């Protein structure tokens, strides 16, 4: 008798990334994104209708937050945890009940500008959704580009203040 075991591997992450150059110093961009995350996140993520830092503010590595997103008129509650804070350079968090990671990378550019890169990673795709990875990636790219555009507009408004 043959013992047949089917090994089902985790899927590769699905990644979307976009960059904008903003006319603001790197430390000010980091302050807006990371240090004031609890105040500003909903401004560039309009589908997030509630954000609650569960461990107080400001957020730090290990801080957990609860968010409520509005998706097709449904309120979706999820939790995430801050996983990386590198002052003036990087801010990341990962879903606790959904397999995703968001990373904001800030690199100094020329003449007091900052390159802001937003990367969204869907860390695992359910087996039934794997045939649709190209569609999922296309939707993610559109969402990431929209997020970066909104973030860029907000940071440009900060310059004018």
SSE topology:
Elements: E1 14-22, H1 26-35, H2 37-44, E2 48-53, E3 64-71, E4 74-86, E5 90-95, E6 100-108, E7 114-122, H3 133-160
Short description:
With 161 residues, the chain is of the alpha+beta class.
Write up what this structure looks like:
This protein has 161 residues and is of the alpha+beta class. The chain has one domain: 2-Layer Sandwich (Alpha-D-Glucose-1,6-Bisphosphate, Chain A, domain 4). Helices cover 29% and strands 37% of the residues. A 7-stranded antiparallel sheet has the order 1-7-6-5-4-3-2, covered by helices on one side. Strand 5 and strand 6 form a beta hairpin. Helix 1 packs across helix 2. The longest helix has 28 residues. It is globular, with a radius of gyration of 18 Å. The N and C termini lie far apart (76 Å).
**What strand order characterises the main sheet?**
1-7-6-5-4-3-2
Fourth-tier CATH superfamily name: START domain
Q: Share of helix among residues? A: 25-40%
Count of individual domains = 1
For the largest beta-sheet, the strand count, sense and barrel status come to: 7 strands, antiparallel
CATH architecture heading: 2-Layer Sandwich
Structural class computed from helices and strand pairing: alpha+beta
Reading off the top of the CATH hierarchy, the class is best stated as Alpha Beta
């Amino acid at each position: 008798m043959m013992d047949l075991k089917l090994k089902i591997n985790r899927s590769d992450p699905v990644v979307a990334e976009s960059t904008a150059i903003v006319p603001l110093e790197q430390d000010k961009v980091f302050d807006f994104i990371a240090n004031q995350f609890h105040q500003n996140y909903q401004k560039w993520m309009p589908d997030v209708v509630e954000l609650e830092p569960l461990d107080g503010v400001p957020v730090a590595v290990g801080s957990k937050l609860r968010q409520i997103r509005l998706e097709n008129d449904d309120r979706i509650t999820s939790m995430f945890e801050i996983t990386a804070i590198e002052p003036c350079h990087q801010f990341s968090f990962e879903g606790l009940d959904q397999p995703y990671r968001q990373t904001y990378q800030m690199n100094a550019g020329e003449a007091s500008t900052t390159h802001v890169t937003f990367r969204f990673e869907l860390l695992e795709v359910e087996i039934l959704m794997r045939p649709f990875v190209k569609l999922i990636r296309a939707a993610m790219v559109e969402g990431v580009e929209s997020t970066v555009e909104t973030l860029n507009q907000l940071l440009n408004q900060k310059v004018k203040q």
